[in-house]
Amino acid sequence: MPVYVVIGASRGIGYQFLKTLSSQDPSNIIIGTARTVDAAQEKVAADGLKNVHIVHGDMDDHASLTAAARKTAEISGGVVDYLIANGAYFAIPCIFDVADDFVGKEDLFLDELKQIMRTNVAGTLFAFNAFMPLILKSSIKRVSAISSAAMLPEYIVGAEDPTSLHYALSKAALNTLVAKFAARYKQEGVRFVSISPGWVDTHADMPKEFMERMSKPFYRWDKTLKGPISPAQSAEMCLKVMDDLREEQSGEFLSQHGNHVWINGK
Ligand SMILES: NC(=O)c1ccc[n+]([C@@H]2O[C@H](COP(=O)([O-])OP(=O)(O)OC[C@H]3O[C@@H](n4cnc5c(N)ncnc54)[C@H](OP(=O)(O)O)[C@@H]3O)[C@@H](O)[C@H]2O)c1
């Protein structure tokens, strides 16, 4: 009866983790945190997901994560085996801006930097801290953060992609945070990993032009790329990466394939 917690599980890959885990084994106990509990609970009920519990949690509010861990302990009997920090802020207001576009827009740069670091980096630290007492009671002890290959210098330079500046900075910091946690909890046997989920088809509601503009560098980087993978494909692969993670890999940044092949052939 492994216990899974997914932070930021209301939609996209996070919600897919709930669906996949629920279908993989009816004995899994799955807790998803959401900022809007009612809407997430309605989705879970409509999809008939068994053993999925939704509790309130906002990565921008550390007290809510502490409360989520308390509620989780009541549901799970005090143990969490797998913790996945998935939620993210994307800094959409300046996602296509490049470094020098911020000349004259310094306040926008700083405001978005503050928000993205707060959610993606500080929010993950708060989530890991809140749930660590429950992880330490597990015999499995796996913790992951969903990161992005967008932070890789080889991608940024190879794809000639100067956009998504804030997002890439936050994911670089997130990977460092995960390595720091791996060092901190090595003696306790907790295995940490940052996982790039691949390019995943989660933003169907965004305008077509936006998605085309965003994905152009992906095709520049990987000439074999056919398009995004489905959330179901990605979630299954990411869960396998956590399961297969060896002790000596703790703190690494891996792709959905469990290695350094980031999209298809790159
Ligand atoms: N899709 C891709 O191609 C791709 C590629 C690389 C990496 N990723 C990473 O994969 C993860 C999931 O992405 P996605 O594509 O599934 O995105 P998404 O569909 O936009 O979902 C984002 C999730 O993050 C949650 N969230 C945002 N701010 C939060 C906060 N302050 N506290 C708690 N939850 C918060 C959202 O909750 P609300 O509903 O409350 O807003 C939502 O559940 C992210 O870490 C992203 O960076 C995605």
Automatic annotation (TrEMBL):
GO molecular function: oxidoreductase activity, acting on the CH-OH group of donors, NAD or NADP as acceptor
Pfam families named in the record: adh_short
Highest taxon above the source species: Eukaryota
Protein name: NAD(P)-binding protein
Source organism of this protein record: Karstenula rhodostoma CBS 690.94
Listed InterPro entries: NAD(P)-bd_dom_sf (IPR036291), SDR_enzymes (IPR052184), SDR_fam (IPR002347)
